[in-house]
Amino acid sequence: MNENITRNEIFNDGKTIHLYFNGLMGLYAAYGYSAFLLYKHTIVAASYSESMQMPVVVMNSAHLDELKKQLEIVKQGKGYYCLTVEEGVDEKEYEEWASELRLGAKS
């Protein structure tokens, strides 16, 4: 699964949210640009994943239900959602956010 996440974020156009259900936590997780877009749209817990080498956010299913009312679902599978947003990622803002998370994870 990590390879799929990495590939999805490498090719993310900055307007796509890839969201994965983590059964152990009972939460949905997103990484990279997807994480940043979720951070801008709903309440999430944000951190930096050392193993994935990118930001990660988690959210509960209630927040997903709200997002599904606001955003277009492009693709849906078992434990996976792909949603789109209208506004893209501001690269400078993303880099600052990711840097803060990375520094916080190391302290």
Describe the structure concisely for a colleague.
The protein has helices at residues 2-10, 32-41, 61-70, 91-106, and strands spanning 16-22, 27-31, 45-49, 54-59, 72-77, 80-84.
Report what the structure shows.
This protein is an alpha+beta fold and 107 residues long. The chain has 4 helices and 6 strands; from the N terminus they run H-E-E-H-E-E-H-E-E-H. It has helices spanning 2-10, 32-41, 61-70, 91-106; strands spanning 16-22, 27-31, 45-49, 54-59, 72-77, 80-84. Strands 3-4-2-1-6-5 form a 6-stranded antiparallel beta sheet. Strand 5 and strand 6 (80-84) form a beta hairpin. The protein is globular and about 35 Å long. The chain starts with a helix and ends with a helix. The mean pLDDT is 93.
Topology of this structure?
Elements: H1 2-10, E1 16-22, E2 27-31, H2 32-41, E3 45-49, E4 54-59, H3 61-70, E5 72-77, E6 80-84, H4 91-106
Antiparallel strand pairs: 1-2, 1-6, 2-4, 3-4, 5-6
Q: How many E-type strands?
A: 6
Strand order of the largest sheet: 3-4-2-1-6-5
N-C termini distance? 28 Å
Describe the largest sheet: 6 strands, antiparallel
How much of the sequence lies in strands comes to: 25-35%
| Helix run count | 4
Spell out the helices and strands N to C. HEEHEEHEEH
Bulk shape: globular
Name a few traits of the molecule.
single chain, 107 residues, alpha+beta, six-stranded antiparallel β-sheet, 6 strands
